[in-house]
Write a structure and sequence with these properties.
- Belongs to the cation transport ATPase (P-type) (TC 3.A.3) family. Type IIA subfamily.
- This is Plasma-membrane calcium-translocating P-type ATPase.
- The protein folds into 4 domains: about 160 residues, Distorted Sandwich (Calcium-transporting ATPase, cytoplasmic transduction domain A), CATH 2.70.150; about 250 residues, Calcium-transporting ATPase, transmembrane domain (Up-down Bundle); about 160 residues, HAD superfamily/HAD-like (Rossmann fold, 3-Layer(aba) Sandwich), CATH 3.40.50.1000; about 180 residues, Calcium-transporting ATPase, cytoplasmic domain N, CATH 3.40.1110.
- It is α+β, with helices and mostly antiparallel strands.
- The protein is elongated.
- Helix 12 runs antiparallel to helix 13.
- About 50% of the residues lie in helices and about 15% in strands.
- The structure holds adenosine-5'-triphosphate.
- Adenosine-5'-triphosphate binds next to helix 13, strand 15 and strand 16.
């Protein structure tokens, strides 16, 4: 019988033994073997939490103070033998619950769908090549490469570890990252002391390593303690909480008001207590915006969906709101504003400049014959290099700049595979902090240290330079000129140097690279700006949003690219060093007037965000590295790169860009502004239409005349509108000018002064018109039932026309598109109109609601009133928008 778990003591045995036990090797599995193992072991994922059963979600809709109140009202009505009222109240309750249930389901589906879009990937060796696969596809025996910023994708027995520190707090609670190594430890070592293991779900804080997968999915340590990874999106945001709190307060206020009116009606107006009770129940039902939270949730969810379709995946719902208020976007350069498609354009050595032809990674047809130093330089460039360039389609696995170096070397006639055959003994991986990468190679002439990195950095490490006839004294001024020359053209510049190491050297450290290097030369890469970024920056400028570039690249390169992008004609540039020298007192001012920050480190990003926030700006900030997490968290909107970004950055961010593209940020801002507009429209429509109905009845009770609508009629209006007009504003497309206005002020509430005015003005207007219609009809000698039917129809028609008015908050609704409406608007109106016809003309409805058929002239009058309402509200919008100056 075989051992049930051959890897249970992986930490106590050498890596080679574990590889053998798993029937794998240091070059990984074959794709076919991996597929077979996947079928056997199942996906590397933890079972999802069971979704809440539909019936419980439905019942959850009834867990709401207003619904209880309505149920109490229905019971009271039934006890008083007002069966019709009881039935209609129940219908309102059920319609609301069904609408809430369906919308909540839709919102949850939208969030679930986008969750799948940011499923993490891992780098593994398959068929001897490094490839990126979905974490769920990992199988025991896979060899996985990990580096700073990664979440360890499965339980791994480490095969190599270089300065590897892993934060295991999620598993052990230990907040200090543990240092990893490959040597076996005692079999009974505690989880946190098993140094040669990397546990699924823990975070690589720094360094690099590789390991063989020993357990996946539920078999991993984290799977065994069955903790769910990552945070689960919740369907709530500060805004939603604000709305819920508002709805609760409003409900209390409505109940208190209803109680007062009840007492008033019974004591001073001689109502029977049953009639008064029915009236106030209807009033409360009519007044309270019970559907509002559900509609706003769906508005946000639609925003999330629209953003996802524009390649911006929302990880935390509040970002949808904040995005719309963004007043400044701080963006990385490489890959976000530029394409991150690198091509080596020039190679400069002490001997001369070689211009390299071609664009992209395909080296065919652009061969050239390099001189001796150029050849040495390119050889160093492909050895001190972790990328792979696949000849099938010329695709790069790894860093695009390193891929471009391989392409250039092939153009120069070098064979990367053969050159790399020379064993690499050790490496110091690239880090944005120190801006270079170093490798140690066993070459025929002895161990050689190769370094590539930011040129200024390498110049300080070098004492001499490679010349045609051997090493010469380093001419730093010459190189600075060459670097500036290339950078001014917008080229990204990288330098190369080497050092012969003493025989027997097998490892390198930072001390080895500090001095005594021989400078080989530099390469200049072109990385063209993304054309859509140019357009997006122009759009930002129109929308009053400032754009800042924060890059690790050279100041001249960054400034040249900023000009090409139209970010500024003559950009102000500060480097990380400049920032360090500015005294605290002047820091905020200096940052505020700078468009380009070059040679910055992640700490600078954090200081820049804070400085901008201290000026009241709403800052969106992009990032990709493990050290970007603090600034992404600090920013009002943290945005991580989906392709290039580390897991650490993605987890710290609120938004992940699927395509790393600046234009997607701007698209998301556009959608964010639309969501905010739509929420305001929903509120702006709901409150006054409720208010209008309620005021009409309150006036009747206070001034002591017959009710212009019976309680059951008020309930009818509520019933017909809750699932129709009240919902469609959530689906509104953007208004044409959304990106032509300034960002809204930070912290501006939803109910701006204009909106408050609107709520009062429209409520009073609806009340006045309803009463006018009521008394006019009575004055004509019509029956009171007919007058009431006219009032109900007038109110509903006015609400339809008001909907057209509020669909455009920032411009007139009298445009062809505005008057045509949208599919959802027209469908909702069709339902409402059909409902009103039934209410007015169907005998059974006349029986239930006490309504009466109306004549054609009555209909004409009602529709004319609706049209006039729209005209008045359009004039009012036109005149007053400027006065309130809301956004
Ligand atoms: P951005 O911050 O806009 O993405 P960036 O890509 O230039 O810009 P970093 O990745 O932090 O920023 O790189 C900073 C500098 O480090 C580069 O300008 C380059 O000089 C050097 N560098 C980048 N990648 C490597 C690498 N793989 N090997 C050696 N040096 C590198």
């Amino acid at each position: 019988m075989t051992d049930p778990c051959p890897t249970a003591d992986s930490h106590a045995r050498p890596a080679a033994a574990i590889l053998a036990a798993l029937d794998s090797s240091a070059s990984g599995l074959t794709a076919a073997d991996a597929a077979a193992r996947l079928a056997r072991h199942g996906p590397n994922s933890l079972p999802d939490e069971a979704p809440r059963p539909a019936i419980l979600r439905f019942l959850g809709q009834f867990n709401n103070a207003l619904i209880w109140f309505m149920l109490a009202g229905a019971t009271a009505a039934a006890l008083l033998s007002h069966y019709i009222d009881a039935g209609v109240i129940m219908a309102v309750v059920i319609v609301n619950a069904v609408v809430g249930f369906l919308q909540e389901g839709k919102a949850e589906n939208a969030l679930n769908a986008i969750r799948g879009m940011i499923a993490p990937h891992a780098s593994v060796l398959r068929d001897g090549h490094r490839v990126s696969v979905g974490v769920a596809d990992l199988v025991p025996g896979d060899v996985v490469l990990i580096e700073a910023g990664d979440r360890v994708p499965a339980d791994l027995r480490l095969i190599s570890a270089r300065n590897l520190l892993i934060d295991e707090a999620i598993l052990t609670g230990e907040s200090v990252a543990s240092s990893k190594a490959t040597d076996p430890v005692a079999a009974d070592a505690a989880l946190g002391d098993r140094r040669p293991m990397a546990w699924s779900g823990t975070l690589v804080a720094s360094g690099q390593g590789s390991g063989v997968v020993t357990a996946t999915g539920p078999q991993t340590q984290i799977g065994q303690i069955s903790t769910m990874l990552g945070e689960v999106q919740t369907l709530t945001t500060p805004l939603l909480r604000q709305i819920n709190a508002f709805a609760r307060r409003f409900t209390l206020f409505a109940f208190a008001g209803a109680a007062l009116i009840f007492v008033f009606a019974v004591t001073l107006r001689g109502f029977s207590w049953e009639d008064a009770l029915m009236a106030v129940v209807a009033l409360a039902v009519g007044l309270v915006p019970e559907g509002l939270p559900a509609v706003i949730t769906i508005t946000l969810a639609i925003g999330v969906q629209r953003m996802a379709s524009r390649r911006a995946v929302i990880r935390r719902l509040p970002a949808v709101e904040t995005l719309g208020a963004t007043s400044i976007i701080c963006s990385d350069k490489t890959g976000t504003l530029t394409r991150n498609e690198m091509t080596v354009r020039r190679v400069v050595t002490a001997d001369g400049v070689t211009m390299v032809q071609g664009a992209g990674y395909d080296p065919t047809g652009h061969g050239f014959a390099p001189d001796g130093i150029t050849r040495d330089l390119l050889r160093a460039a492909i050895q001190c290099n972790d990328a792979e360039l696949r000849p099938d389609g010329w695709k790069v696995e790894g860093d695009p700049m390193e891929g471009a170096l391989i392409a250039a070397a092939i153009k120069a006639g070098l064979d990367p595979a053969a050159e790399r055959g020379a064993g690499r003994l050790d490496a110091i991986p690239f880090d944005a902090e120190h801006r270079f990468m170093a490798t140690l190679h066993a070459l025929p002439e002895g161990p050689v240290l190769l370094v590539k990195g930011a040129p200024e950095r390498l110049l300080t490490m070098s004492g001499d330079q490679a010349g045609a006839s051997g090493p010469q004294l380093l001419d730093a001024a010459f190189w600075t000129d060459r670097i500036d020359e290339a950078a001014r053209e917008g080229e990204r510049v990288l330098a190369y140097a080497f050092k012969a190491m003493p025989q027997g050297t097998t490892g390198i450290g930072f001390d080895d690279v500090q001095g005594g290097l021989t400078f080989l030369g530099i390469t200049g890469f072109i990385d063209p700006p993304r054309p859509e970024a140019v357009a997006a920056i122009a759009e930002c400028h129109r929308a009053g949003i400032e754009v800042r570039m924060i890059t690790g690249d050279h100041a001249e390169t960054a400034a040249a690219i900023a000009r090409q992008l139209g970010l500024a004609r003559d950009p102000q540039v500060l480097t990380g060093q400049d920032l360090d020298r500015i005294p605290d007192a002047g820091f905020v001012k200096a940052v505020a007037r700078t468009q380009v920050f070059a040679r910055t480190s992640p700490e600078h990003k954090l200081r820049i965000v804070r400085a901008l926030q201290s000026q009241g700006r709403v800052v969106a900030m992009t990032g990709d590295g493990v050290n970007d997490a603090p600034s992404l968290k600090q920013a009002d909107v943290g945005i991580a790169m989906g392709i290039k970004g580390t897991e650490a950055a993605k987890e710290a961010a609120q938004i992940v860009l699927m395509d790393d593209n600046f234009a997607s940020i701007v698209a998301a801002v556009h959608e964010g502004r639309t969501v905010h507009d739509n929420i305001r429209k929903v509120i702006g429509w709901t409150l006054p239409t409720n208010g209008g109905e309620a005021l009409t009845v309150i006036m009747a009770i206070l001034l002591n005349f017959a009710l212009p609508m019976t309680p059951v009629q008020i309930l009818w209006i509520n019933l017909i509108l809750a699932s129709t007009l009240g919902l469609v504003l959530a689906f509104e497309p953007s208004e044409p000018g959304v990106m032509a206005r300034k960002p809204r002020k930070a912290g501006a509430g939803l109910l701006t002064p204009f909106m408050l005015w609107r709520v009062c003005f429209v409520s009073v207007m609806f009340m006045a018109i309803s009463l006018a219609v009521f008394f006019w009809a009575l004055g004509q000698g019509r029956e009171i039932e007919v007058a009431r039917t006219m009032v109900v129809n007038t109110l509903v028609v006015m609400e339809i026309f008001y909907l057209f008015n509020i669909r455009y908050l920032h411009m007139t609704s009298f445009t062809l598109t505005g008057l045509k409406g949208t599919g959802p608007v027209l469908a909702a109106i069709a339902v409402v109109v059909a409902g009103q016809f039934a209410f007015t003309y169907l005998p059974v409805m006349n029986g239930i609601f006490g309504s009466r058929p109306l004549g054609l002239m009555d209909g004409v009058i009602i529709v004319t009133i609706g049209v006039l309402t729209l005209v008045v509200l359009e004039v009012e919008k036109h005149l007053l928008r400027g006065v309130f100056d809301d956004d």
